[in-house]
Design a protein that fits this description.
The chain is α/β, with parallel strands linked by helices. The chain has helices at 2-26, 44-52, 63-72, 91-95, 107-120, 150-159, 182-199, 214-220, 229-232, and strands at residues 34-38, 57-60, 79-82, 100-104, 124-129, 163-169, 205-207, 224-227. α1 (2-26) runs parallel beside α8 (214-220) and α7 (182-199) crosses α8. Bound molecules: pyridoxal-5'-phosphate. Pyridoxal-5'-phosphate binds at residues 38, 40, 61, 83, 171, 210-212, 226-230.
């Protein structure tokens, strides 16, 4: 138990150092970037250890795992982010614990999130997941809306009761013109964000960067990085 806490503490310190160095290199203040620890596949005990070490934001990508974990940790003051592809039949459950859904990528999902948020009497923060590997108007390999579809989807979220439009999220593409070019991908996301903020000035969140590419995300201007492996270790292979 304590060994695991020490291991996480050491990893967290290393990640903190990387973020601080990336901020310094980019001429940004450290408090412009928020660390979200991705706890998927790791147990609720690890979430407790993270909270005791000062982590305030955690993320999950599968409702089946996230729902019981969030319930087991409901006494902790944590913000829960949902970052996985979301089916409408899971929305009611996700709205029960998620403060922010980062993977909003289609109108049907907006409708379902709004209905369940209203029903639960909650306000749910929404990030539009942008697919930089999608054709215009299409969807990405791992979900996400093409940059050309952001304006219309943003308007829907902004008009939806129970939802708050917070900004954008992306995962660096493995295919297409941005494959292997994380920094260029994140800079493109910042352009899309600038366009979004013209119509929705409060939608300032830009969630980009994971264990392998958080430096590039901070350099491009990300406000949130989502780090799993570098804090908790290499995950067991998913079923
Ligand atoms: C798993 C995951 C991460 C974290 O990835 P690591 O490489 O483990 O840091 C970030 N974002 C999303 C959407 C994820 O699914």
């Amino acid at each position: 138990m304590t060994d695991r806490r020490d291991e996480i503490a050491t990893n967290l310190a290393k990640v903190e150092e990387r973020i601080a160095a990336a901020c310094a290199a980019a001429g940004r203040r450290r408090d412009e970037v928020t660390l979200i620890v991705v706890t998927k596949t790791y147990p609720a005990d690890d979430v407790r250890r993270l909270a005791s070490l000062g982590v305030r934001h955690v993320a999950e990508n599968r409702d089946q795992d996230a729902a019981p974990k969030a319930a087991a940790c409901s006494d902790l003051s944590l913000s829960w982010h949902f970052v996985g592809q979301l089916q409408t039949n899971k929305v009611r459950s996700v709205v029960g614990y998620a403060d922010v859904v980062q993977s909003v990528d289609r109108a049907r999902l907006v409708t379902a999130l709004s209905r369940e948020a209203e029903r639960a009497g909650r306000e749910v923060g929404c990030l539009l997941q942008v697919a930089l590997d999608a054709g215009e108007g299409g969807r990405g390999e791992r979900g996400g809306v093409a940059p050309g579809g952001v304006g219309e989807l943003a308007a829907r979220v902004a008009d939806a009761p129970g939802l708050r439009l917070d900004g954008l999220m992306t995962v660096a593409p493995l295919t297409g013109e941005y494959a292997g070019r994380q920094q260029a991908a994140f800079e493109r996301l910042m352009d899309v964000s600038a366009g979004l903020r013209r119509d929705h000035p409060a939608a300032t969140m830009v969630s980009a960067g994971m264990s392998a590419d958080l430096e590039q995300a901070v350099a491009a201007g990300a406000t949130h990085v989502r780090v799993g492996t570098a804090v908790l270790g290499v995950r067991p292979v998913l079923r």
